[in-house]
Write a structure and sequence with these properties.
This protein has helices at residues 82-86, 89-94, 120-125, 130-149, 160-173, 180-201, 263-270, and strands at residues 2-6, 16-19, 49-51, 54-55, 67-68, 100-102, 107-109, 205-207, 210-212, 214-216, 222-223, 239-241. It has 280 residues and is of the alpha+beta class. A hairpin with a 2-residue loop joins strand 8 (205-207) and strand 9. The longest helix has 22 residues, at 180-201.
């Protein structure tokens, strides 16, 4: 029990409160145990962190080491892959998910139509290279965060830290005043955080630099595919997706869905000179 501690988060009412965290050891998700270390399982959706006597009501960056103060469930997260968003522009439009900014506000994403800068189709369907990969994952992650809680900057979502890192890197890369050294460092940072975004967009979690999507059926070890689990003694072992995977979670009841339409994505793939950043 923590008495008189200030709750600090946009989703919580500020002020001194009495907070008691109760952990039911019989209902912990797969991969969690009763020792409750910081960032248990690398999944902030199932723990609350404390630092300098402050309890957080929203997720922290999963790469940041903080003391753990128990388990705390935040809002359910929803995510779909870049491939989904690239072939469902109608879903983006019907649900009013645009506009939003990326790259530190340098780019406004405001259309699903191909052959235009600021297009989700150009961002997601134009592939190849670190910069295009970065735009693809930033746009897909932003869409997923908006569906989750409406936050265009992913605040309050477990991927917020990586999203901020990628936005910062993107801003440097696209700033004509950036030095060659600054751009080189930003490209390195972009490779790391973009992979983390891609992992989350696919329902996974980044642990020790590796993307894992579930646990092995025979021993609960983390895995990315069934190939990580199969061995001589367990030839039929499978990698079972995390029970709390944002990718497997159904969209909210009021969310408008429709069939895939790859038309804009195909047009973006054919437009060799266009991207999220520029389109002559």
């Amino acid at each position: 029990t923590f008495s008189g501690i200030d709750i600090v988060d946009a989703d919580c009412v500020p002020g001194p409160v009495d907070l008691e965290v109760v952990v039911d050891l019989n209902t912990l998700p797969a991969g969690l145990d009763n020792e409750s270390p910081w960032q248990q399982g690398g999944d902030d959706r199932f723990d609350s962190d404390c630092e300098a006597g402050v309890i957080a009501c929203a997720a922290y960056d999963a790469s940041t080491e903080r003391l753990d103060c128990g388990f705390f469930q935040i809002a359910e997260e929803f995510c779909r892959t870049p491939g989904y968003w690239g072939t469902h522009p109608g879903v983006i439009d019907a649900n009013g998910l645009l506009p939003f900014d990326i790259c530190g506000g340098a780019i406004t994403v405001d259309t699903t139509s191909a052959l235009l800068p600021g297009s989700t189709s150009e961002a997601i369907c134009t592939t190849g290279g670190t910069v295009n990969h970065l735009g693809r994952n930033l746009v897909s992650t932003a869409l997923n965060c908006i569906v989750t809680n409406g936050a265009t900057d992913c605040s309050g979502v477990s991927i917020a830290g990586s999203f901020a890192d990628c936005n910062a890197a993107c801003a440097v890369i696209n700033d004509p005043n950036s030095t060659d050294e600054d751009v080189a460092l930003a490209l390195i940072a972009a490779d790391i955080c973009s992979a983390e975004l891609d992992c989350w967009n696919n329902g996974g979690q980044t642990m020790s630099g590796m993307c894992v999507t579930g646990t092995c059926s025979q021993d609960g070890a983390y895995c990315a595919s069934s190939g990580d689990c199969v061995d001589i003694d367990n030839p039929d072992a499978t990698c079972d997706n995390f029970a709390n995977s944002c990718h497997d979670r159904e969209f909210p009841d009021d969310f408008i869905t429709m069939s895939a339409d790859p038309t804009e994505c195909k047009a973006a793939k054919r437009s060799r000179n266009c991207s999220i950043y520029t389109c002559p």
